[in-house]
Amino acid sequence: MTTSAQETALACIDSIQPLLSAWTRTIFDFGETAWREYQSAAWYVERLKREGFSVEEGSGGMPTAFCAHWTNGDGPTVGMYAEYDAVPGNCQDAVTVKQPRPGLGVEAGGHTDPHSGLGIGSLGGLLAAKAAMLEHRIKGTLRFTGEPAEKVRGSKPIHAAKGYYDGLAGMISFHPFYMLPLCNTARWDTHCGAAYAMIYRFICDEPENWARAAGDSAPIPQAHSAVRAPGANDALMMMYMASKALRDSMLTHQGGWSISEAILTAGQATADNLPAGLAEIQYMIRVPTIAMAEQVTAVLDRNAEAAARMSGCRYERHWVSKSRPGLANHAMAEITCAALSTVGAPQWSKEAKAIAREVQVNAGGEATENPFIDELERLITPQEAEAILRRDLPPSQTNSTSDDYTDMSWHAPTSRFYVARPALRSANGHAYPAWVMNALGGIPATIDPMVTCAAKTVALTALRLLEDKAARDAAMDEFVKRTGGGVGGSNWLAPLCDYEPPINFRWPEYVTTPRGRDWWIPSLPPHDT
């Protein structure tokens, strides 16, 4: 049964639904990537200020982060947050065909999860909770953080280390569904694992010593055929190949771990007779435990040192993220799932299904009567989802996959819940390309049901924490028990962040030049027809 305040919140979301739809599309069209979400962060800051929130911009030393507060008197503080970073190489317009957003190439940023809907869903819940608190004179504070660079696990370990999650009665973490069985449910016991991300930078700043060691007595090479230092590119390639070759030997073959890498452009685009002076490669390690992350890091460090020595370079390691594995809280999961049950699973209209069938055909598949998978419009309990999730995991593994909301879970009772995003049914085993999910995440008719459902669930969860002291205390008691005394307790994991925000690397971004506004990889001109 909903309270009168919760009814007010639900009505508020229904009334602002057209705004939530428009705002989702705004962030989708920005398509800004990690550490460079300037327009997106500015949009949130302006919106929150207009809604009466006090906002700290650039929180934690991150230019595209923020921390907002709104207080209605002494009472508990409830936390929520927005993410808004997109992914390079996924520029897709909100249309039913494969097509980048106007004026850009496919290499530009685009929303995949989509964080555009994630952030606005949480924002809708925040605004509805505020409206209900005002109308029903509910005491308490709402805290809303802006979390950039989630795709590289960027902001949350930093915010955690600098105290932005301290003092919360509860943290509400929403994410669009991305894997079965976690659709329209909350995590129970098996939360996400640890994640380490780092950049190895190779520098060739004394190439003359290589030539001298090779016996070239000439002070200045006189010909393009003269010996030259291998340079930073060669160091990077040796690092890349050595780490690929040793990947199977870094950890035992269980636990669902993964290691991925991205070569960052360092600015040398002219193939002159000079050694490359700088090259960078980023690694992301997703593992169940911190010990596994440390073990992989030690191997990568050895590889980097060896590659640098072989190529006459030096190397540096710079942290992007060190994120802890997640901590369960059954009481918080139950509060959120009760809210989700009240709201109900999202439902898709005839218009949305017609659009989805058009996408099915345009993506090389067959149109089906119901183009969406069945799970999208169903609820599943956390316990049922947990049982399915555990089928493929060894009993000893307590965490699986990766997401940096986990850092919040060590500072406050945290619920992690998922609402269905549009996903197409496959006929005859057809595999859909990535642009399909990206497009459906931007088309209002297909993404709005998720945003509305998430906003209502966030609002009802927040109000339950504010109004129901027994439920709030149960969540905190469980948090204290699991951590061995709360923050600083005997079983508590302290923040791992011992680095400054990695904002000054060559992260890809949009640029403005005499050619106009473009992605850092120039868009190709249209083909002649």
UniProtKB/TrEMBL annotation:
This is Amidohydrolase. PANTHER family: PEPTIDASE M20 (PTHR30575), XAA-ARG DIPEPTIDASE (PTHR30575:SF0). It comes from the Bacteria.
